[in-house]
Amino acid sequence: MGAAGRSNQRKRSAAHRDEVAEEFPASSGIDVPSEPEASSDEDDNVEEGDFDATLRMMADDQGFGSDEAEDFAAQDSDEDAEDEDEEKSEIHSSDIDGASSEEDEEDEVEDEEESSVSDDDKNPLLVRAASRSTEGQETVVDSDEEAENSVLDGKDIDRLTINDFGRDLGSWKEYRKTLPQIDAGYASDSSTEEPVNTIGNVPIEWYADSLHIGYDIDGKRIMRPATGDELDKFLDNMDNPDVFRTARDEINQQNVKLSEEEIDIIRRIQGGSIPDADYNPYEDTVEWFTSQTMQTPLTAAQPSKRGFVPSKWEHNRVMKIVRAIRQGRITRGAPVSTAPQYFDLWADAEAEDSVGTGRRQRERLAAPRTVLPTHAESYHPPGEYLPTEEEKRKWLEQDPDYRKRNFLPHDFGTLRTVPGYDRFIQERFQRCLDLYLAPRMKKKVSHLDPEELMPKLPDPRDLRPFPSRESLVYLGHTGRVRSISVDPTGMWLLSGSDDGTVRLWELITGRCAKIWDFKDTVYRVAWCPSQDSCIFAAAVGSRVVIVIPSDLCDDNRLLVSEELVKAGFGSAAAAETDDDSSLPVSWDMPTSTEQASGMHVSIAMHRTVKSVTWHRRGDYLATLTSEEGGSSVLIHQISKHKSQRPFRKLKGAVQHIKFHPTRPWFLVTTQRYVRIYNLMQQSLIKTLQPGVKWISSVDVHPQGDNVIVGSYDKKLSWFDLDLSMKPYRSIRYHSQAIRQVQFSRKFPLFATASDDGTIQVYHGMVYQDLNQNPLVVPLKILRGHEIRNSLGVLDCQFHPIQPWLLSSGADGTIRLWM
Amino acid sequence: MGKLKKKYTEGASRTYTTRNRALKKLQLSLADFRRLCILKGIYPVEPRSAKRANRGSTKPTTFYYTQDVKLLSSEPLIAKFRHHKIFLRRLQHALGKKDFTRAKSLNSHRPEYTLNHLVIERYPSFTDALRDLDDALCMVFLFASMPSVKRVPKQGIEECKRLAAEFMHYVIFTHSLRKVFLSIKGIYYQAEIQGQTVTWIVPYQFSQRTPDDVDFKVMATFLHFYRTLLGFVNYRLFTTVNLSYPPKLDEILDENAAGLGSLKVESRRVEDIIGNVQSDGEHDAANNAEANKDTSAQDKAAMERRLGSLGTKMQAIAAADSAAPAYQVASDGAGLHSDDEDDVARAESLLFGKQVFFLSREVPRYSLEFIIRAFGGRLGWDSSSGGGSPYTENDHAISIQIVDRPVQGHRFLDRIYVQPQWIYDSINANRLLNTQDYLVGEQLPPHLSPFVEYAQGDYVPEEASRMAAAAAGFEGEVSNLKPEDRDEPESEQEEATADNVEGESADEDEQLDSSDDEESDEEGDAKAEKQYQKQIAAEHAGVSFSEYHQQQQQKKKIKQSDNSKSVKPRGKAPKRSKAQIEEEERQKMAISMLSRKKRRVVNRAQADAYKQSKDANAL
């Protein structure tokens, strides 16, 4: 029952309370709210159509149906009582009624039994009703005829109301039972059919083995109805004309014959229409609120303006769309472009380019191209490109970023075995990253051919002669040979060594002509450069010994030499010197044995004499001692046995001293500078700055304008005295300290001797033309000396006449290079 | 006292800007900025002093040219990006509200952008575009062989496939392929297009596994630009050789996997050209209303005259075409330039001009079809590797069958069965190689990279020197080796001729060597005279005798070394001779004479040379 229906019913019940009481079975049972007038007729029809089914149900229910009816009555009367109930509660109430009525049922059933027996005669109406009820029970056997009768009966009966019974509720109850069963119909909420068997949803198979098939409402067993065998069933079916409208009720183990109405329902369901024949889907609408103005309106509120004024916002919105359509912003579907996707993009560009009207932009650096693959990347490379197991392992262990190649060469042999490369996409991606993330810079890569940088040097072969190979080795010394000197005639070689001896060698043959044993370290030996005399000086320990090797020279030279050396004894100058106590020098006469071996003068000093060097004339001799200050450098005059101290004080430790070959100059070399003094004017002329840490030796070109400086920090510096105080050229070849540098007196050659055991011979040409720079060409590296205690070649000297070189080393040998 | 100058107002801090500063200025997200940089080709730079460029900070930063960032700020794409952002927001909003009609309408008006203006901006001339085509081709060919990924949907892949096929058609049509190389990574191709060398790599056709460590967003952005670039380049290339663009796709053939054959390359029709001219005229008119009316009219007249003559030619060609097989593209368009006979002659003069190939099903058709056709060959293939083959396997026109299997079962006697490497090696050698080494089941000779150029002191593999020697011999005998007519089925003969040629060339080499000695005896006087003259010339040039002598020596030495190399390329390093030691010493001494700066350069160069020689020795 719909809500509307209910409220309708309520109104009606409120309005015609009495009428409801009169006609309640029909009007409340079948409730069609829309057509209250027509409904009664229809109800009747329905009642007629349904009657036999109703009766059968009554019979099946065995009295339950009448209880139902009573429930309905109770319900309706309740409804009357509770006047303005909510719909929901009403629904509930029906449930509650259902529940409460169950309690009554049992009493009523008992009452019924009692009354049917005892109160038969009380009321004719009751008697009739009772007889009806018994007839109803009979209908199980013969339902059709009974149904017709009962329909007629039902029509004919003057229905009584509760008012007719007055206070006699018991008889009303009795009477009520006689009233026909109410068919709730499909519109009804509650189903009138309740199964006899109360087992519920349990499969009936579970009872297959037992005698009963379930329990009735009272909990009593319902025994299994007797069934015949298959043959009986078949015969029954054959006999039964209604076999085609019979259905099996499994729960109750009965055959049920379907009524016309039920069949009609089945047909309707099959046909796809609404099962309920009564339901009209196309009902007329009911105007609950009529268009006619009510005299008293339902609400007193003012009608809203919105109700009759068109919306401004809606208007705005519509206008927006309209405007958009007018302006063509809204079109139907996506705009279809008719222009071709690709066209000649560069058609105009190139013409423009030729004119040269292009915006000036920074030059874009094109990305570097990828490196093209080498043989190693081939699917079938030559065997030598395949990695060994070791290389493979190394490659696999290496960090991928540091790998030289990002793949491992592999020989697949044939094309069909080549698999897809699994890092292809990654490599492409890497390239993409490089293109937009890697900084690009123009880097200057010098494509200079190193050959171009190389100095254009003349070929050494064009610069011959120069010493290029070892030709003689002078053996005999047992200590390092610190110094060698060749006599001006070029026939004799003098060497001084750590073993305390000075040896005289025949240069050409290597024969040792004479040995002087001083029992003290010989630091330096030096021939007097004068051609007329035959004298040499040797720095032995803390004295300088002047020796005339009498066997070597002819009488003339011997005479000159002896005169020169001995003239000083007893001279005034010598006496002066002796008096000058400030000078740490004493000119002594050697002992007689020493004299026999050729020593004529011994100049004793306080400290070790490091160096001895002759003036070119052969009369003066300069010595360098290891003491500090000005008295370390002394100049001795042989002819007068006179010593001088040219420098009162000197800065720094003096390393080397040298007379200038052409001018009255004197070169004093300290650790870092070379100072050139004029002895005549007693003044400093120049200070050369070779820019090295520790100068070892200095030599002056025979022409006097160029100086070479060798240093312990491996550098050789060439100075042009006319040009600058800085070296004209620095050459670095040696890997160890340079010990000695030496010009050749006759040839444009010079040589450096180093601790790395090599001697480097250079061509050092100085031109007369002052505009032309001196030419320095490295010519030859001479190797032969052994390195002892990290000392290699200690001294080297050029032959005065021949292009030969002599060198002495820490290995105790002297070598002649030709 | 002058006004104090504010810091960082000029110099490096002005020239360069950091990435974050650029982002701030452009008001872009990093992703958008990156996309923009990719599309515009803007790259980071490395200032000489990062500290100075970054206003005294030494933090590691990415720098860009301020000028570049300025250029970006006026880029119309930025607005497009913003539109897209708004569009996405709206769409998301609509979807969130389940307003599907609005979402649908929004989606139909999705803001689109093209990159046409960027192509012309980055490549002002067509040559520039060609020069930078390598990466574009690699990328497009890669995606043409890939399944669609999220960022690159099917449509994009299809376009890549089409662009790649178009480009290959152009290369085939102009026969501009030069080198090919089967690498373990893929197949490299090198073509020469309008004087520019273009190299690209194509992966072997296997299903590509899409890796996780690759950001396809970046790849897709690159691809977008490259697709646009290649599209325009293709258009230009096609139109310059008078082909219509885009070529028509035969869908039936395409479905049957006909490969390259599914695109129908046709010459431009006369109407098209006229239409173009007209549209050009209109375009001109629109651009400069009256300026060059006369000239355009003249052009038009000239063009029409030319087209008139073209039309007659086209008819002739059309007649010829009906007879010629449809797949032969070359005869289609080339007719515009030359007569038909010339065309045929040209095709036959190509490397595979007179050969008909058949590809077995196991060889890579996608590569072989391309390169064989690019060198004028005709080919058919097994039906299992695609439809549309013009030859079946038992066609007697086929002269060479390419197979890649250990054993060939059934053989036709009138054809040679070679392995695919023969094709690649022949192309790289630019002559038909002897097939003896490449027959079925033979152990193949090593496949060498054609891209390697040997500098002095580089290691030369044996195979390469052998090939070079063979090629040198071949050049003299070019006229002898003409592919024989297909009427007589004797391939053996061809081989024999090839054999002979190679044998002869080897002989000749020997002869050349020996002739040197003989000459010296016979023509000793003449030689001495010559030498004397040379010496005099050298003297004039200011070369000292020793130098001259040395040069001569060196020349001889090189000759000798060459000879020895050809005989024994992988000998052990010979013991250094005395002269060599001397030479080295001299070198060392000369270096000692150099200034420190120069010495460093020379030393570095020497170190490089040493490394190179070490690498070469390792092989």
UniProtKB/TrEMBL annotation, chain A:
<feature type="domain" description="BOP1 N-terminal">
    <location>
        <begin position="207"/>
        <end position="467"/>
    </location>
</feature>
<protein>
    <recommendedName>
        <fullName>Ribosome biogenesis protein ERB1</fullName>
    </recommendedName>
</protein>
<keyword id="KW-0698">rRNA processing</keyword>
<dbReference type="InterPro" id="IPR015943">
    <property type="entry name" value="WD40/YVTN_repeat-like_dom_sf"/>
</dbReference>
<dbReference type="GO" id="GO:0030687">
    <property type="term" value="C:preribosome, large subunit precursor"/>
</dbReference>
<dbReference type="InterPro" id="IPR028598">
    <property type="entry name" value="BOP1/Erb1"/>
</dbReference>
<dbReference type="GO" id="GO:0000466">
    <property type="term" value="P:maturation of 5.8S rRNA from tricistronic rRNA transcript (SSU-rRNA, 5.8S rRNA, LSU-rRNA)"/>
</dbReference>
<comment type="function">
    <text>Component of the NOP7 complex, which is required for maturation of the 25S and 5.8S ribosomal RNAs and formation of the 60S ribosome.</text>
</comment>
<dbReference type="GO" id="GO:0005654">
    <property type="term" value="C:nucleoplasm"/>
</dbReference>
<keyword id="KW-0677">Repeat</keyword>
<feature type="region of interest" description="Disordered">
    <location>
        <begin position="1"/>
        <end position="152"/>
    </location>
</feature>
<dbReference type="GO" id="GO:0070545">
    <property type="term" value="C:PeBoW complex"/>
</dbReference>
<comment type="subunit">
    <text>Component of the NOP7 complex, composed of ERB1, NOP7 and YTM1. Within the NOP7 complex ERB1 appears to interact directly with NOP7 and YTM1. The NOP7 complex also associates with the 66S pre-ribosome.</text>
</comment>
<feature type="repeat" description="WD">
    <location>
        <begin position="474"/>
        <end position="515"/>
    </location>
</feature>
<dbReference type="GO" id="GO:0043021">
    <property type="term" value="F:ribonucleoprotein complex binding"/>
</dbReference>
<dbReference type="InterPro" id="IPR036322">
    <property type="entry name" value="WD40_repeat_dom_sf"/>
</dbReference>
<keyword id="KW-0853">WD repeat</keyword>
<dbReference type="Pfam" id="PF00400">
    <property type="entry name" value="WD40"/>
</dbReference>
<dbReference type="InterPro" id="IPR001680">
    <property type="entry name" value="WD40_rpt"/>
</dbReference>
<feature type="compositionally biased region" description="Acidic residues">
    <location>
        <begin position="38"/>
        <end position="51"/>
    </location>
</feature>
<dbReference type="InterPro" id="IPR019775">
    <property type="entry name" value="WD40_repeat_CS"/>
</dbReference>
<feature type="compositionally biased region" description="Acidic residues">
    <location>
        <begin position="100"/>
        <end position="118"/>
    </location>
</feature>
Automatic annotation (TrEMBL), chain B:
<keyword id="KW-0539">Nucleus</keyword>
<keyword id="KW-0698">rRNA processing</keyword>
<feature type="compositionally biased region" description="Basic and acidic residues">
    <location>
        <begin position="579"/>
        <end position="588"/>
    </location>
</feature>
<feature type="compositionally biased region" description="Basic and acidic residues">
    <location>
        <begin position="280"/>
        <end position="299"/>
    </location>
</feature>
<dbReference type="InterPro" id="IPR001357">
    <property type="entry name" value="BRCT_dom"/>
</dbReference>
<dbReference type="Pfam" id="PF06732">
    <property type="entry name" value="Pescadillo_N"/>
</dbReference>
<feature type="region of interest" description="Disordered">
    <location>
        <begin position="277"/>
        <end position="299"/>
    </location>
</feature>
<feature type="compositionally biased region" description="Basic residues">
    <location>
        <begin position="567"/>
        <end position="578"/>
    </location>
</feature>
<feature type="region of interest" description="Disordered">
    <location>
        <begin position="474"/>
        <end position="619"/>
    </location>
</feature>
<dbReference type="GO" id="GO:0070545">
    <property type="term" value="C:PeBoW complex"/>
</dbReference>
<feature type="compositionally biased region" description="Acidic residues">
    <location>
        <begin position="486"/>
        <end position="524"/>
    </location>
</feature>
<dbReference type="GO" id="GO:0000463">
    <property type="term" value="P:maturation of LSU-rRNA from tricistronic rRNA transcript (SSU-rRNA, 5.8S rRNA, LSU-rRNA)"/>
</dbReference>
<feature type="domain" description="BRCT">
    <location>
        <begin position="346"/>
        <end position="440"/>
    </location>
</feature>
<dbReference type="InterPro" id="IPR010613">
    <property type="entry name" value="PES"/>
</dbReference>
<protein>
    <recommendedName>
        <fullName>BRCT domain-containing protein</fullName>
    </recommendedName>
</protein>
<keyword id="KW-0690">Ribosome biogenesis</keyword>
<dbReference type="InterPro" id="IPR036420">
    <property type="entry name" value="BRCT_dom_sf"/>
</dbReference>
<dbReference type="GO" id="GO:0003723">
    <property type="term" value="F:RNA binding"/>
</dbReference>
